[in-house]
Structures are given as C-alpha cells and as structure tokens.
C-alpha cells in the first residue's frame, strides 16, 4: 500500500502515526486483544482533549471501555478517578475487573456494605456514596480529575434518579465527567444540558450492535423469524402472520378460568387436546430450554416478571429431567459452590433451600432474582459467566447493569406488573432485556426469542423490536436533606439558581416552546369555531353556556348522590363485627363472605386516601373469608350500597387464615350456614335532580332563549361544544406554561418554607437541627430528624432501635391485603406509635405547604411491617425462626437488614452527644451484621 504513495503522502502518514503513538490512547489500546470500535476511539480522543463525553450505545457494545480510559488517564496524569455505578453488585464486579488490570493497591471500593482501600487513586462506588461525599465536603475529593457515571440513564428512576443530577450539578468544575448510557432517543438533549452545566461535552451515539441480534417467535414446535428482510426492506415475516391467521380461524380455545379441581382437570385435558390439534401453542419452560439446547442457542436467560415464576421454572425443568451439564461440569459446579458457601453454617443452608438450589446448579439450571440471598445470586452469576449454568430464569432486575451476557434471551410475556397494574413492556424495556443476547468475542450472533401467547399480535412485537423510543426523563425533585445541604454550602438564593440548572428544569423549559406553539395554533382554531357557531337569532355562546350549566348541575347532583351512597355504605361497614355473614354486592369477590376483621380501626385496616377526591380504598376495609376459601381485605369500591349482616356464626379460635385447611373448613361451614340465604336487592332512591330548583330554572331559561328555536340549533351546538372543548384545552396549556416555569425552584421554596417553620433553616443560616438533617439520607429523612429532636428513640435498647429504624426504610410489596403487622411490645411499641404520630404532624404540615409524597417530595407513612423480624434478628434469633415468621424470601430479608444497617450508621453519626441513641445505633449494627446478613463478597 505504501509503495503506491507519494513521498509527501508517506511523510504525512508517518507524522500521523508518530502523533498517535505520543497519545495516552496508544498504550491503552495495547491493553486489549481486540481493535476498539470507532465510537470508542472517538470518545477516548475527546477525553484526552479535555472534553467531557456522553456515550449512548446498546447493551454489550463495550461503552465501559471509555470509562476505563478515564481510569487510565487519571493514573497516567497522577490524578484520581471515581467510577460510579447504580447498584452494589455492579460496583463489586467493576472493582474486580479494575483490580485484575491495575492491582489492588491502586483500586478501592466504597458501597454501603464495603470500604476497601478508599484512599486509592481509583475508587469504585455507588452514586449515592459520591453524592454524600459532595455534601460533606470530603477530603477524598481533593485531586479528583475524572468521574465515570456508568448507567447514567438511571436518572430517569423516580426513586433514586435525583442523585445522578445532584452529582452532575455539584461536581467541581475541574472534574471531567464521563457519562455512559443505554441507547436513548434524546441523547442530544441530554448532551445539550451537560454542555450547559459541565462545559464542553461531546455526545457520541452508536446504534451499532457488535453482535447482530436475530428476533424470533417460538410458536408451538416452530421457531420462526420475526422479520423477513429483502434488500433494504424489513417487514413482519408473512409465514408467521399466516400461521397466526390459520390458527385463529381454527379457533383458540383458551384456558378456562377453572374454579374447582375437576374444572381445572377438564381445562388441562382440553389444553392437551388443543395442543395436539394446533400448530400454535405456548411451549412449556422445559420444552423451550430443550429446544434452545437442540438448536445450539444456550446459554440463555429467560425473563419472567415474577420471583415465584422463576423458582417454579427451575422446578419444572428439574421435574422434566433436564440435564445441561456433563459429569465433569457437575464436579466443577459443586467445587465452586462449596468453596463460596463454606462460611455459611449448615443449619442456615438448610433454611435457605441450599440442596435443592445446588441440584439445579449441577444440572446447569438456576433462578436469579432479588428474593435470593446475595451470595447465591453472585454464585449463579459466576457459574453462568464460566458456562457452568446454561439456563437462567430471571426477573428484569438482571437486565440492569451486571455483566451477564448470554447467547439467547427468552421473553415469556410482553406484559409485566409495574407496581400499580399489568402493563405492556415499553420499547426501551424490550431493548434493555434483549440487549443481553450475544456475547462479544464469543458469539457470531445473538438471539431474542418471544414465546407465543394467546392473542399475540406479531406486528406489535415487531413494533417493540424495531422501535428506539427510549427517552431520558428527569425525575429530579428537591428533598429536605438536599435543601439544608445546599443552603449550608451556597445560601438560599444561590441554591435556588443551582436547582434551576437541573435537567428537570431544562426539559420543562424546552417543553414550554412546543406548548406555546400549540396555544397559538389553538387560538386560530377558536376563531374558526366561533364563526361556525354564530346564530342569526341571538347569542349562541350564551345559549351554549346555559346548556353546559344544566349538564354540570346534573353531574354535580349525581356525584352528591354517589357520595351519600358511599357514606351510607361506609357507615354500614363501621357496624360490622367479626362473625357477621354478609353479601358482597360487586367486584372480584362478590358473593357470600364471613367478616374476620371489620377493618375500621386497626393499623392497615383503614387506608388513607390521597389528599382531595374520592379514593376507592379509603374508609373501612373488612378482612373477609369468601365461599371460595379466599381471605381478602375488601375496599369501599366493593360496596356501592349499604350492607347488612344476613346472619352470624362463630369463628373458631384455632382459625388460621394462612392455613388452606382452616380456610376450607370455615368456608364449608359458611356455605352450610348461609348458602341458601337470599341477599335481597337494595332499593334505589328517587333522583334529587327531579326536585332541584336550579335545574328547573336552567331548563326554563334554555326554552325561552331565542336560539332554542333555531332550525340549525344542534349543528351550532356541536360547533359550540368544540369551541368550548378547545378553549378549555388552551387554558390548560396556558396553565402548564405558567406551572412549568421555575417549577423546581418553586418546589424548593415550599420545602425551605416548611424547614424554616420547623427551625431547620433561618434565612441563609442552617441551625444545629438542620445540620443533623443534612447527615440523614433517605426517603424519610425529615421524620428521622424529628425523631432525634423529639428524643423518640432515647432509652431504647439496640434491638428496639433497629425495629423503629426499619419503619423508615421498609415498604411492603403487597400492602393492600396485608393484615396489621406484628410489632415488638414495650418501649419499641411506644416509640413506633410516636413515630406514626410525628409523621401525622409532618403530613399535615406538608399539606399546608402543598408538598406531596405523590410527587416525590414529601414523607410517606412509615411501614411497620419489618419491625418484628429485624427486632428478633437483632436479639439473636435463628434464621429459620425469623424467616418463617417474616414470611419473606432470604434475599429480601438481607436487603432490608442492610438498608436498616445503613440508616443506623447515619443515625449514629447524626445523633446528639450525651444520649443513648448514637451508642445503641452502633450496637444495633453489630447485632444485625451476623450470619447471612454479613455474607457479602467483593469482586
């Protein structure tokens, strides 16, 4: 090639090579046994030029190379680099990677659980740790040159996202920021904001996957491509569409909602017959893994949006006799597992289901979800990376962060529970999940397999797979802790200005431009509607207003009637007693029911609704046993009319709602006692509109208006309705413009005003109580500070203090149907009651200052559901006893304990001197940090 070059060209090429060799990038590239991609080189060069970078690229594309180059630059230049990650597991993993490359003396780790070599020039940490350092003015920030924010798209997370923005805003100007993100559709917008708050920032977006991804649908016994490509055209596979249409024409029997055992057996028989007739059915989990194994598509991760589903999948594969490991691999698995679990006592292993878990691992099959013991999850990850586990059934949390790629990814369903309802997964979630398929340097291609489900639309699946609409949306809100820390460092006015530089405000201000354009467009439309509704007989706008007033009055009376009926229903529920037999008139559990707990006074039995408006779950919530043997806590929505007891029966003292046999026996007695009773029908009352004088006046005014006699009246009315609807929409847009301007600063003003009333702030001065609040991080930071100020926890022993602190961090997964939680007695019960009363005072104060927990700023009600388990653990009870009574998986128990330990550490540092709280908080940490809670690994 060089022979064809002129002397001048050879000289220029030589100069370019010499310049390239003189850069820090050249020796860095030699550390890897593969060529860097163009986007990686571009980002690294920008970093070496002193620019910040935002790299948005698909999962598995190697964007962390850019973060590692920042580490390389820091070490080369004699500076420091902090590498931040959103989760501890990813911090541990990245720490291990960097130690292998640079040595343990140059790399440290800081998470809530571990502190290793924290003075090293390179420290891996969770993002919260860096935020806390910034507010504390830590000496560790001296000499900091680079900060890598891995998975920076976490700032969309509504619970933790604000931390990322706090760090970005408050980092010293001298620090170069490296932001690594999944592929997002508004990377340029985010980059523009980074450019505004951090200075010169290069945005580098790569859509290219280093390992091509093939999309499939597994329908019955057929693995079909989702797309058919011809030249530049990419469309849904016509064979797949034909298969779906032909099966629909034959009729999809579906699975009946069977109630009894006989009905379920019949439904299963029908399903087997249908599978034999049809080419399209949902294969079993064991069939899927067996098919992937036959096609050479293992290892695979199957995403199941349920912990119980993941565990059930492993059992189904074991019962089907699947064995994915040969004898040599089984031996290696056992060696690794026994070495990694050697510190766990035998009695705990038995409680944790160790032997059943090990059997699955030896066969190459495992589950992975947040309910597992962290040590068990880490072992699954290690075995999977080494090819010793070939089929993992995981919840979607596995897709976030940790490096665990597979050859194939299987999605059982495209619907998941989002905490409020079952919803379709988004294109962003689909991309994140399927991004795990295809291992760079190992696989030539990756495979995403969607299982056929009843009613599946291949076009909708193709839409998910082909879309790249994953916008980054700020979730930033000022918190109480943030407010006192900002005022302490910058004063109130400067703090307000800083918050106005947040990405949340940046996006709000940009959105105002589009809204203003829409307002102008609407105003043009209003002029046209006004002209179209003009009537030659009179003022049609006035006539339309009378019609609207009549409609509004009728709706108002209807609502009043509904409110009266709800009040009557609530009053009737207040009168219920345990043992009353009632008829539930509507809802999922309609029919005969036996009242176990009236639910009108116990904690957890009477729900608080949102401020203002009707909440269907507000009011008495009786706990009942239905004739279908279900124990459920009902809500007001189940009782549209008053309820009266049909009869009474005795509830045996031995009745246990968790025992299927107890429920069966009592339900049988209920049917025998009242199964023949007719519940009767509630008599409807006369409508109040018939006697309302205002409605009569409006009807008379409408009839006497000149426009009432117009031949084109209804045509004019349609235009008037459109005019009114568009005018209402325009006013809403104008209010949104007013509301979006300075929204973050206004929220800060409300927070600061409340803190001033509580004497945490005095103008620009932060009081001693305010400085204490500044050391407490968490969702209930203000409640914790008030408990310290009011001495609620003074005199508690360590286990009682742990129980109280658990109420600040714990949130039940399924709170609605849960009975009132058991709590420790004595001083702990008194303190927990005081905490709830304190929260009530704060809640009323927040309402006064228009601060709402729903918007992510206020304080939620403390949850007492973990107080009893953590109290018993702190007292030294065994794991088997605590887990049995807690009724929660070991992984959840460990995670909540570690969060309690984290907050106890904060309280130990913030507690006033001279009291017992600080000393007992440290003792409580020592008592909790034992057994399975103490098992954590680094790397």
Structural class: alpha/beta
Termini, distance in Å? 47 Å
Mean pLDDT across all amino acids: 82
Oligomer: single chain
Number of strands: 28
Query: Strand order across the biggest sheet?
Result: 4-3-5-2-6-7-1-8
**Considering DSSP H and I runs of 4 or more, what fraction of the residues is helical?**
40-55%
The global form is: globular
**Low-pLDDT stretches:** 252-259, 602-617
Discrete helix count? 34
Tell me about the largest β-sheet: 8 strands, mixed
Q: What percentage of amino acids are in beta strands? A: 5-15%
Compute the CA-based radius of gyration.
32 Å
Set down the secondary structure blueprint:
Blueprint: H1 7-21, H2 25-29, H3 38-48, E1 52-56, H4 64-77, E2 80-85, H5 88-102, E3 107-110, E4 115-116, E5 122-126, H6 127-136, E6 144-149, H7 162-170, E7 176-181, H8 187-198, E8 201-205, E9 213-219, E10 222-225, E11 227-230, E12 233-236, H9 238-250, H10 261-277, H11 285-294, E13 300-303, H12 307-319, H13 327-340, H14 346-351, H15 354-362, E14 365-368, H16 374-385, E15 391-394, E16 408-411, E17 415-417, E18 422-424, H17 427-434, E19 446-451, H18 458-466, H19 480-499, H20 503-532, H21 540-574, E20 580-584, E21 591-597, E22 606-607, E23 619-620, E24 623-626, E25 631-633, E26 647-648, H22 660-674, H23 693-704, H24 713-740, H25 743-757, E27 761-762, E28 765-766, H26 768-773, H27 781-789, H28 798-809, H29 826-848, H30 867-874, H31 879-886, H32 890-910, H33 917-928, H34 931-934
Parallel strand pairs: 1-7, 1-8, 2-5, 2-6, 3-5, 6-7, 9-19, 13-15, 13-16, 14-15, 16-19
Antiparallel strand pairs: 3-4, 9-10, 11-12, 17-18, 20-21, 20-26, 21-24, 22-23, 24-25, 27-28
């Amino acid at each position: 090639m060089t022979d064809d070059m002129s002397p001048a060209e050879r000289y220029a090429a030589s100069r370019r090579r010499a310049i390239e060799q003189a850069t820090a990038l050249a020796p860095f590239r030699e550390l890897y046994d593969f060529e860097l991609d163009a986007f990686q080189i571009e980002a690294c060069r920008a970093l070496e030029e002193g620019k910040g970078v935002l790299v948005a690229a698909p999962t598995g594309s190697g964007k962390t190379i850019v973060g590692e180059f920042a580490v390389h630059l820091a070490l080369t230049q004699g500076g420091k680099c902090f590498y931040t990650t959103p989760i501890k597991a990813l911090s541990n993993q990245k720490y291990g990677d960097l130690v292998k490359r640079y040595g343990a003396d140059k790399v440290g780790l800081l998470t809530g659980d571990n502190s290793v070599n924290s003075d090293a020039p390179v420290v891996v940490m969770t993002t919260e740790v860096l935020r806390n350092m910034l507010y504390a003015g830590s000496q560790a920030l001296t000499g900091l040159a680079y900060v890598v924010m891995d998975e920076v798209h976490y700032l969309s997370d509504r619970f933790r996202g604000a931390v990322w923005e706090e760090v970005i805003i408050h980092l010293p100007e001298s620090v170069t920021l490296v932001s690594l993100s999944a592929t997002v559709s508004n990377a340029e917008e985010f980059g523009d904001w980074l450019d505004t708050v951090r200075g010169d920032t290069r945005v580098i977006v790569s859509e290219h996957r280093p390992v091509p991804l093939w999309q499939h649908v597994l329908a019955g016994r057929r693995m079909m491509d989702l797309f058919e490509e011809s030249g530049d055209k990419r469309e849904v596979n016509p064979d797949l569409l034909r298969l779906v249409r032909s099966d629909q024409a034959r009729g999809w029997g579906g699975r009946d909602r069977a109630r009894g055992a006989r009905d379920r057996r019949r439904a299963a028989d029908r399903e087997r017959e249908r599978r034999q007739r049809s080419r399209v059915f949902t294969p079993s989990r064991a069939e899927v893994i067996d098919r992937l194994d036959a096609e050479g598509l293992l290892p695979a991760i199957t995403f199941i949006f349920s912990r119980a589903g993941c565990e059930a999948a492993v059992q189904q594969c074991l019962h089907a006799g699947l064995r994915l490991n040969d004898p040599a691999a089984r031996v290696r698995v056992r060696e690794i597992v026994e070495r990694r679990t050697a510190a766990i006592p035998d009695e705990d292993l038995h409680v944790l289901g160790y032997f059943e878990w090990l059997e699955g691992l030896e066969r190459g099959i495992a589950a992975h979800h947040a309910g597992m013991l962290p040590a068990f999850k880490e072992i699954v990850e290690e075995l999977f990376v080494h090819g010793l586990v070939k089929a993992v059934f995981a919840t979607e949390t596995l897709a976030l962060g940790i490096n665990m790629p597979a050859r194939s990814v299987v999605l059982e369903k495209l619907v998941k529970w989002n905490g409020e309802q079952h919803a379709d997964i988004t294109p962003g979630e689909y991309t994140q999940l399927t991004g795990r398929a295809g291992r760079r340097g190992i696989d030539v291609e990756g495979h995403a397999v969607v299982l056929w489900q009843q009613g599946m639309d291949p076009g909708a699946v193709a839409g998910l797979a082909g879309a790249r609409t994953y916008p980054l949306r700020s979730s930033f809100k000022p918190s109480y802790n943030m407010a006192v820390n900002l005022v302490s460092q910058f004063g109130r006015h400067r703090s307000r200005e800083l918050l106005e530089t947040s990405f949340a405000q940046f996006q709000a201000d940009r959105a105002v431009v589009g809204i203003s354009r829409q307002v102008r467009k609407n105003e043009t439309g209003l002029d046209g509607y006004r002209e179209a509704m003009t009537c030659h007989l009179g003022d049609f706008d006035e006539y339309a207003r009378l019609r609207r007033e009549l409609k509004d009055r009728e709706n108002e009376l209807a609502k009043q009637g509904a409110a009266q009926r709800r009040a009557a229903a609530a009053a009737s529920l207040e009168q219920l007693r345990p043992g009353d037999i009632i008829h539930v008139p509507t809802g999922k559990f309609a029919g005969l029911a036996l009242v176990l707990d009236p639910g009108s006074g116990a904690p957890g039995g009477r729900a608080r609704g949102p401020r203002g408006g009707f909440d269907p779950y507000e009011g008495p919530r009786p706990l009942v046993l239905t004739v279908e043997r279900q124990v459920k806590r009902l809500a007001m929505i189940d009782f549209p009319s008053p309820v009266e007891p049909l009869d009474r029966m005795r509830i045996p003292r031995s009745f246990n709602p968790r025992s299927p046999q107890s429920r069966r026996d009592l339900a049988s007695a209920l049917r025998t006692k009242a199964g023949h009773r007719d519940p009767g029908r509630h008599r409807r009352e006369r409508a109040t509109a018939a006697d309302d004088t205002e409605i009569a006046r409006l009807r008379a005014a409408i009839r006497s208006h000149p426009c009432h006699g117009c031949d084109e009246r209804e045509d004019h009315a349609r235009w008037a309705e459109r005019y009114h609807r568009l005018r209402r929409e325009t006013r809403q847009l104008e209010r949104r413009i007013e509301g979006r301007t300075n929204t973050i600063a206004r929220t800060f003003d409300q927070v600061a005003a409340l803190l001033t009333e509580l004497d945490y702030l005095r103008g620009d001065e932060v009081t001693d109580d305010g400085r204490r609040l500044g050391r407490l991080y968490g969702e209930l930071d203000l409640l914790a500070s008030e408990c310290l100020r009011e001495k609620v926890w003074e005199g508690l022993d360590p286990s009682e203090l742990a129980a109280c602190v658990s109420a600040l961090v714990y949130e039940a997964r399924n709170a609605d149907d849960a009975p009132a939680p058991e709590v420790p007695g004595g001083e702990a019960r008194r303190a927990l009651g005081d905490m709830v009363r304190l929260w009530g005072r704060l809640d009323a104060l927040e309402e006064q200052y228009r601060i709402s927990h729903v918007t992510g700023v206020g304080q939620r009600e403390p949850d007492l559901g973990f107080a009893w388990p953590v109290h018993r653990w702190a007292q030294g009870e065994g794991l088997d006893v605590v887990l049995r009574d807690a009724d929660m998986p070991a992984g959840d128990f460990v995670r909540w304990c570690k969060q309690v330990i984290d907050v106890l550490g904060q309280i130990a540092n913030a507690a006033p001197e001279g009291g017992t709280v600080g000393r007992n908080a440290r003792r409580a940490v020592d008592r909790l940090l034992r057994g399975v809670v103490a098992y954590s690994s680094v790397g």
